[in-house]
Amino acid sequence: MPQRDVVSWNTMISGYSINGDEDRAVGLFEEMQGCGVRPSEYTYSIVLSLARTVRCGMEVHCSVMKRGMVYGSVIVGNSLIDMYCKYGFVDYGFSVFVNMEEVDVISWNSLIAGCGKSGYEDMAFEQFCVMRRMKYEPDEFTISAVLTACASVQDLVKGEQVLCLSIKSGFLSNAIVSSAAINMFSKCERVNDSVTIFKELDMWDSAVCNSMISSFTNHRLEENAMQIFTRSLRKNVRPDEFTLSCLISCVSVFLPLVYGIELHCLVVKLGFEHDPVVSSSLVEMYSKSGFFDAAKIIFYKMDIKDLICWNSMILGSTYNGRTVDSIKLFEDLLRTSLLPDAITMTGVLLACDHGRLINEGLSIFNSMENKYGVKPTDSHVTTVVEMMIKAGKLNEAMNIITRMPCGLNAYMCELILSAYGVQGELTFTEQVAERLAELEPMSLLPYIILGKAYEARGRWESLARLKKVMKDRNIKKVTGCSWIGVNSSLFVYKENEVIHHGGEDVYSTLRLLMHDIEGEDYIS
Description:
By secondary structure, the chain is mostly helical. It has helices spanning about 5-20, 20-35, 40-50, 55-65, 75-85, 90-100, 105-115, 120-135, 140-150, 155-170, 175-185, 190-200, 205-220, 220-235, 240-255, 255-270, 275-290, 290-300, 305-320, 325-335, 340-355, 360-370, 380-390, 395-405, 410-420, 425-440, 445-455, 460-470, 505-520; strands at about 480-485, 490-495, 495-500.
């Protein structure tokens, strides 16, 4: 073009942004200013949405202030509020909002949604109330943002009030609002109400179906989630990456692998095999199912590997006993531009635990905060303590526990009691058992270990008192269960019992087999 005006530049910048080429979009913005073309409010709005860090956003903010349009332009002001709140700088967002010459509903929505996403859910609800007092009419995005904030803090009372307002205003039929309402009830442990809204709406929309599928999976109702997915396909609702990722995660937790293979075929058919979120879910599914080689193939074929994918692969290596591979993957991750997070460190420490790599594990644990910026959590401490106890180093394990603010948790108590409870010092065993009984009141382990310790030392009166305590507290053995998926059917087995259709037939068949074996003199 012989002449390019601001509209031409905006169109190209927006085009690159829409197609995911953010670097080229920002480069065009800089080139535009170098050519002497003055950016418009729409230019700044696009570029602010592309800011990868708050520092980049602040640089654009400075440029806007030099142009004198920051407080006079609603579009630019809204973009600044959204940008600051996205990175958790809510006070900066409020400063922009208060100083704007004019605000609209989008300004309020940006502020309310930003407060909710940054962990200030109560503030989001307060701003919603202020918005209504100032005679601004909320729209479907406002209602959705407030319902999401209520879901985050599980405030069912306020959530139901907002839902009533949405019904009065006629917003519940909107897919954004209805999906937020379904999610809110699910987070508040009212999944039946989520189902009620879903059935009454009878709206087969991608966002609504995703919310319902997510609600079922979060409440361990994986088969219900698969049923909704199957019905949505019959209604010609095209699944997106969120749908597929959520369902694949179901398979990795509870459902038979055959469902996962079918979903993998659908992923390839729909062209999502290169999506980082979907690929990470596939890696996790195959890793948890024991098909680690399949997980490796998917991982190394990925064009873009985000931290979630690296974490899935590191944990998958660990759970499949390939601890050396897990450590190597961690070293490969450190050579990229990505920084490890708490989940990464959990996977690496678990690898050190499973592989008995005590020195490496301690070195990583002691340097994780200074070297990688990850503060040790209860999970990290527990893993290291388990590693030390397995190595027979109880004193070192206790030193680590005393240095950490989290203290003894239930799993640590179980580890200590299982390893040292019977043969260890009785006073120490009693203290740990008492701590476990406080944390897990219905756990049988502290009473079993204490009983064996008293019996080994001939403390019969203490044993009698212990049994009386168990009787008074109604402590009973919990029956464990296991399950296996065969040909799309799930068989659940309890101890000394088979729970599924035809369970008695299984035992009858086994008795007949035993009779035939005895008849053929295979066993005496």
